[in-house]
Write a structure and sequence with these properties.
The chain has helices at residues 2-7, 10-14, 86-96, 108-122, 128-157, 161-177, 185-191, 195-206, 210-228, 233-239, 245-256, 260-266; strands at residues 17-18, 22-29, 32-36, 39-43, 47-51, 56-58, 66-72, 100-102. A hairpin with a 2-residue loop joins strand 3 and strand 4 (39-43). It is built from 12 helices and 8 strands. With 268 residues, the chain is an alpha+beta fold. The strands form 2 sheets. Strands 1-6-3-4 form a 4-stranded antiparallel beta sheet, covered by helices on one side. A 4-stranded antiparallel beta sheet has the order 7-2-5-8, with helices on one face. Helix 6 (161-177) packs across helix 8 (195-206) and helix 9 (210-228) packs across helix 12. The longest helix is centred in the middle third of the chain and has 30 residues, at 128-157. The two termini are 24 Å apart.
């Protein structure tokens, strides 16, 4: 992060920008409030932020903090691995990671050592193919450590694995179909369960209702498009499955407390 500050103007880092890659941020010193999808996330040494493609982020440039940033694309996960069958499972596991994690104190050395070694190796003069293979394997190791740390946390909370699996399928469907399916019925049909079951699973795993998850995902995408693009409000409403701009505006005001144009002006 210290090096990034010297290369990018503070105004650019502070401005909302939508990423098209995975990003890990390991806070090593100081504290900051990083904004992910318009939600402020307070971070201290040992905090890990896990950002997914299409999310919108804003850096805290006022606070004196430092840390490592790791950027990668899904196809880089197993660029050097032989077992291609393992790739989808790791990609899915990474997608399940929470946006913010607090590492246990005894996990810090292994994570920081892995990232520091990747940084050092990236500056060596190895041949391109050998270097990419090395970094790919190191990245996999780093991500598996994060996945295991997250599952250890889930086990400590007593989360039922079958519920987690069903919740994962529901969340994946929401991410793919939120613009077409605004009610729970099509999701329940696709998964093969009742709407009541979906609500119970969402409450147990995420602490919220299934309906709220669908609504929040629509509102989130609206915020992303309003903050990061110059598309007209009517066009954004159409992309999100609303028949006319007035219905979209009513929905957005109900969910956020302001109109789409008011929200956009606040992020310009």
């Amino acid at each position: 992060m210290r090096e990034l500050r010297t290369r990018a103007p503070s105004a650019d880092l502070r401005r909302p920008h939508r990423i098209e890659f995975h990003e890990l941020i390991f806070v090593t010193s100081g504290s900051c409030t990083h904004v992910v999808d318009f939600e402020p996330m307070r971070c201290a040494p040992g905090s890990v932020l896990v950002l997914q493609p299409s999310q919108v982020e804003q850096f805290d440039v006022a606070a004196p903090w430092d840390g490592w940033l790791v950027l990668f694309r899904p196809e880089q996960l197993f660029a050097a691995a032989r077992d291609k069958q393992a790739e989808p499972s790791l990609v899915e596991a990474v997608a399940e990671l929470p946006a913010r994690m607090a590492l246990r104190q005894d996990d810090h050395p292994a994570f920081l050592s892995c990232v520091a070694q990747m940084h050092k190796d990236a500056r060596t003069h190895l041949g391109t193919s050998e270097l990419q293979a090395l970094l790919s394997h190191q990245l996999c190791t780093l991500l598996v450590r994060l996945v295991l740390a997250n599952r250890r946390r889930g086990s400590a909370l007593g989360t039922d694995r079958s519920q987690v699996d069903r919740f994962r399928r529901f969340r994946q469907l929401v991410d793919r179909s939120f613009a077409q399916w605004h009610t729970l019925a099509p999701y329940a049909d696709a998964i093969g369960c009742t709407e009541r079951t979906l609500t119970r699973v969402a409450q147990a795993v995420a602490g919220t209702s299934a309906k709220a998850m669908v609504t929040n995902r629509i509102a989130l995408e609206a915020k992303r498009l309003l903050a990061h693009t110059a598309a007209p409000v009517s066009s954004i409403g159409d992309q999100l499955g609303f028949e006319d701009a007035s219905n979209f505006t009513k929905f957005f005001r109900r969910e956020t407390g302001c109109t789409p144009l008011e929200f956009r002006s606040g992020y310009r």
